[in-house]
Amino acid sequence: MITSLGPRRHISRPPVPVDVAVVGAGPAGLAAAVECARLGARPVVFDENLRPGGQLFKQIHKFFGSKEHKAGTRGFDIGSTLLEDARTAGVDVHLSATVLGVYPERVLSVIECDSHRLYKARCVILATGATENALSFPGWTLPGVMGAGAAQTMINVNRVLPGRRVVMVGTGNVGLIVSYQLLQAGADVACLVEAAPNIGGYGVHAAKVRRAGVPIYLSHSVKEAQGSDEVERVVLIGLSPDWRPVPGTEFRVEADTICLAVGLTPLTELAQILGCEMTYMPSLGGHVPLHDDNMETSVDGVYVAGDIAGVEEASSAMEEGRLAGVSAAESLGLCDEGAAEARRWEIRARLDALRTGPFGGGRRSDRQSLVEKGRRQA
Amino acid sequence: MRIVDHPVLGKEENVPEVTIYFNGRPLAAQEGEPVAAALMAHGIRVFRRTRKRREVRGVFCAIGRCTDCAMTVDGVPGVRTCITPVRDGITVESDAGGEGEHP
Amino acid sequence: MTEQDTARGVLYDGFPSRAEIAASPGVPSPSRLASGPVAFIECVQEIPCNPCEAACPRGAITVGLPVTNLPRFDGERCTGCGLCIPKCPGLAIFLIDMTFAPDKALVEFPYEYLPLPSKGDVVGVVDRSGKVIGRGEVVKVLVSKAFDGTAVVGVAVSKELAMDVRSIARRKHGDGK
Fold first, then answer.
1. Are B94 and B102 in contact (CB under 8 A)?
2. Residues C142/C111, Cβ–Cβ less than 8 Å
């Protein structure tokens, strides 16, 4: 934690040269670093957190996919393997290191160890992930209202219950999964609330929660959180087909916690500071950087991977990280185009396998149109 | 409330205990855990009141982005308690008016 | 009338309807169901997922490519070993034995909560909507490192409940029975 930097006239130390700078030590960033390290690069990964792994270590459920995606393995075990791979590959991970900005010629401005440093990278891979969205309603600032990810961190990382009886807002996979995990942690889940007329996430995740007797209220939202100093009860209200609150449909639920699982937004500040061309795609979470098939943005030598490039999941984040890693190594001359393309096609095959079916297929076409848009603008 | 046993995570490991001080009140905490988690383990979710409107605040994002959980830690104001690890003897103050007044 | 009687489908209820399940390739034929213990897969949405395929030592489950295919179940190959139950990441595989006893069927399901029930406990049994639809005796509680945190619990229930019972009423630490 920064206490004081003290007076500083000028940063006199020259930037430290780095071949690949990776921002973010979550699944995308670590996978990218491992991939290019195995090809001979010496990547440096920066992460502002105390521990690496991003959101991976909070995922205590078994992942889907196929054997190559480590299906059937719990998220935190996949995380441990990834960390071990990073260690074996000699990846240099700087924790408690905040990248303030990335400037022309790929110079990174970093605060770490209570001091400021500059790094000059030949390639930069931005893997900064996404942030939880908020939903405001009267009473939303009361203690007890928190992000679903916040609750997940508390229960699965800190082993602390954030409350005793939870209303979960949102039935995407995050809302469904965290509800189940709250039950596993010993909390009650009073209900899930969904504004849309249908459930957003996987049926199998919903089924676990319904089996536990938890109701899901579709076409409903939170009207108000009530309580003097903390949440004590929640007023829910029905929504019309065009998502307008319907007066007279209010009802109260006793609960001391409201978790908001209302979507994620890519953390793209660094891409924007760099001048990367952006595009707005709501299905991917909002403003996302344009990139090509190799995960390279419109700025030479700057790549993106994981949720920063569009909100998805850990499995696809790792594959995108590998794509960016290979491409960065190729641009450094560490492998020839043929070998790089062969490797990339292996990775793309695994990515495509994740992006099929009624849930994944839409993401695939969204990403294809994003890449095409990048081509047209180039 | 601490999760002592969990179907997937197993039983809680023996983590060394430290003492933290919340507005002068000593509380047991686990070495290395975030301040905010230590407080929540004791059922403390009301961290502070805002300066102007005296509205209560606690944890919201738990990942160091929103600053709702920020308090004065070891005399330094505006410290995000959700990402700051405890250590033995650490002082945490609600800082209403800068006098360590409890909300 | 239970929620299962008026089910609209997994996208709305959060659990698959009897019709969706019957239409999926993961369920055994009525004759196979009547003849002894057999797996019962309630996977009705195409998501990329195939651990069930490798889980079965007899090759009774096929997903193939693309991995979003719904699992196809060959009841004739199934010996009712139940190894598939803890392997499904979606906790969507069960085992039903209609021949367990003259008046009882056995339903086995994945369970990832504490406290685990104990053999001999008589507990509320629930349908897919979590509604308690009867009582049953816990006859099996299987925990194994190989199951990676997913226990397999078996309850003996009246035969007419076997097509609906999919878990036991949730209990928390300190709850009475």
1. yes
2. no
pLDDT exceeds 70 at position A1: no
Asked if residue C176 belongs to a domain, the reply is no
Q: With CA atoms as reference, report the closest residue to C93 among C167, C177, C11.
A: C167
Of A25, A41, A26, A88, the C-alpha closest to A326 is A41
Number of separate domains in chain C:
1
Q: Is the minimum CB–CB distance between B9 and chain A shorter than 8 Å?
A: yes
Classify residue C177: in a domain, yes or no. no
By residue range, what is the domain housing residue C25?
A: 3-168
Residue A157 to residue A75: CA distance in whole angstroms:
12
Do the domain assignments include residue C105?
A: yes
Q: What is the pLDDT of residues B2-21, one digit of tens each?
A: 999 999 999 998 999 999 99
CA distance A260 to A192: 10
User: CB–CB of C113 and B7 under 8 A?
Assistant: yes
- pLDDT tens digits along C111-148: 999 999 999 999 999 999 999 999 999 999 999 999 99
pTM (global) more than 0.90:
yes
Let me know if residue C173 belongs to a domain: no
Chain A residues near residue B76 by CB distance under 8 angstroms: 1, 3
- Asked if B16 reaches chain A (Cβ–Cβ under 8 Å), the answer is no
Query: Does the CB of A129 have a partner CB in chain B at under 8 Å?
Result: no
B neighbour chains, 3+ CB pairs within 8 Å: A, C
Contacts (Cβ under 8 Å, ≥6 apart) of B90: B18, B20, B21, B35, B73, B74
